[in-house]
Amino acid sequence: MKNKILFVTFLLMASVSAWADSFTFGNLEYAVIDSANHYVSVGQGETKPEGDIVIPAEVENGGIKYTVTAIYGYSFSSCSELTSVTIPEVVTVIHELAFLHCNKLTEINVASDNSKYSSQDGVLFNKDKTTLVFCPKGKVGTYIIPNSVRTIDPSAFEDCKNLNTVVIGDSVKSIGSYAFRNCYNLTSVVIGDSVKKIGWNAFGDCNGLTKVEYSSIESLLKIKYDNECANPIYYAKCLYINGKEVTELIIPNTIKSINDYAFNKCQSLTSVVIGDSVKSIGSYAFADCYNLTSVVIGDSVKSIGRNAFSYCYNLPSVVIGDSVKSIGEEAFYYCYNFKTVVIPDSVSTIGKSAFCRAKNIVYSGNAKGGPWGALTLNGIIDGDFVYSDAGKTNLTAYIGDGGDVVIPDAVINIGICAFYDCPNLKSVTIPNSVTSIGGYAFFCCSGLTSIPIPNSVTGIGRYVFAYCSGLTSVTIPNSVTSIGDYVFEGCTTTIYCDFESKPEGWDWHWKGDEYEGEVIWKTATPATETAANAVSIYACGKNIVVENAAEEIRVYDAMGRLVYRDAARHVSTITVNGTGAYIVKVGDVVKRVVVR
Questions:
Q1: 578 burial type by CB count under 10 A (0-12 exposed, 13-18 middle, 19+ buried)
Q2: Mean pLDDT across the chain, nearest whole number?
Q3: What is the pLDDT of residue 12?
Q4: β-strands 380-382, 385-387: how paired?
């Protein structure tokens, strides 16, 4: 990206320098770029040109004749009513972005074949048509790139919003940066056999792309991409090989490596078998292939790149062969449906968060940094549960299929993310031995409808029940002295609290910003209940009620300011200005009440 920025900056500087010595001829503006040879560049004047324009080969200013040899970058930028341009044969330089945002421009013509440039069907090429320089923004429908083209210049099709299909011929070897960016109505791309390089962001923001087709797996896998947005598969919903949609991918034994971003975000893939000839899997090679449910890694693979399978969250397991020596950072990040993963002792390098949220990692090697984001390393598995200790008191993961779950009586701590994103979970019975529930423990368990919290629990971590949309009610017992933030984020459940008000140990945002349910607090206990006519003080809705007051009633806010004062009466309903804590004093009786 840095090179791109520097290049554009250079063009801008060149343009500023050139236009410093400028003049107007006709309705266009010209800048002297070579005073000795009388060369000028052309651009729009104060009035943006409209319709069909013909750039002259020669212009005159102050009795001097000048030859038009260049069209600089941005020269005709945003000439929104420009429909066609004819370029004289003497023009030798046309910089990229010269016709940026000329959305009605449908045709560019070159006046003569003695020129450095040529045109065909309104599209601009170099003289021998081996380089496609620029496609007018008004191009509509399907465009087939001529077989003579070897290079597609940077930004050549950028902002061609009316293109639907592009067929890239077998002669094309490289596609420049931003070549098809912002072609958001592009639905289908056919990539020729000879393409070896696709530049930075070449297909950026092609959000309408649904189909990308190659002639063979071999032709696809020889392409190198500058980044994920260079790969058209990143946006497409379907990958086609020789006319057939690919869902079950088999990498043939003729392939030695899978390049970075090769199948990044390929939505059509459901299974992948990597042949025994493959030695390396590149970074982000299968990242965001979230429909993948099966992956078999060949016996010859030695390295798995960074984020190679990240966000493949429907993948239940992966078999890593004995040949693998290194696993990159976040290689299987967010593959949270992993239950147990066995890492062979041959692996000596494992990157940070390589197995983030995997339920259990089995590994006896000596790579540093374990468990690399996994919930448990070499845990003890008993039925559907994984524990981190021999006594089975620390429950770190649930690997069952859901339904009605009873946690064993020996458990004291329910670990972080223990039941994370178990959508088939219906109910959970927590034993009286449990004292703490770790953060994210039941996060996104959307099918969970019932989970009684026993009086033994003293601490509940952050986001524990967030997005448990099936919960209708939860009771928090008065044993709970600490609650983390956003515990009920995204929920509509009714929360019954066995407290009169929020304890100090509960986080300020304990419910969460997006909590839409109701919180019901325990009714305040009357200050005195020893006699039938004793003073009774309590909150009722937005009011404070005082019964059987024999002396003057005074109410103070949380800052100690007197906000109400009245004579004694049998029943007094006091309306206060806002919610919060108040102190009510009747004679020797003092009571703190909370209005919500």
A1: exposed
A2: 89
A3: 40
A4: antiparallel
Strands 141-144 and 163-167, sheet pairing: parallel
Q: What parts of the chain have a pLDDT lower than 70?
A: 1-20, 113, 524-533
Pair 74, 51: CB distance under 8 Å: no
Residue range 484-516, pLDDT digits in tens? 999 999 999 999 999 988 898 999 899 988 888
Which of 19, 102, 116 has its CA nearest to residue 69?
Answer: 116
Q: Assign 377 to helix, strand or coil.
A: strand
∠ CA(344), CA(350), CA(356), 5° rounding?
100
DSSP conformation class of 506: B
Residue 360 identity (one-letter amino acid): N
- The Cα 325–Cα 151 span in angstroms is 38
Q: Name which of 106, 66, 107, 111 is nearest 87 in CA terms.
A: 111
d(Cα 226, Cα 261) in Å, to the nearest integer? 9
CA 595 to chain centre: 42
Please tell me whether the peptide bond between 136 and the residue prior to it is cis, using omega within 30 degrees of 0. no
Tell me if 308 sits within 8 A of 334, measured CB to CB: no
d(CA 155, CA 134): 8
Q: Are strands 459-460 and 294-296 parallel, antiparallel or unpaired?
A: unpaired
Using alpha carbons, select from 251, 268, 352 the residue that is nearest to residue 310: 352
Taking Cα atoms as reference points, which of 292, 159, 182 lies closest to residue 229? 182
- Measured distance CA(276)–CA(300) in Å, rounded: 5
Reduce the DSSP state of residue 10 to 3 states and report it: helix
**Neighbouring C-beta atoms of residue 558, cutoff 10 Å:** 11
How long is the chain? 596
Contact present, 125 and 119 (Cβ < 8 Å): yes
Which residues, 6+ apart, have CB-to-CB distance to 248 below 8 Å? 269, 270, 271, 273
Output the pLDDT for position 524: 56
Helices and strands, counts by H and E, the chain:
2, 51
Q: Fill in the amino acid letter for 242.
A: N
What is the distance between the alpha carbons of residues 488 and 474, in angstroms, rounded to a whole number?
Answer: 10
DSSP symbol at 13: H
Distances (CA, A) of 491 to 124, 152, 336, 371, 511: 57, 51, 22, 32, 9
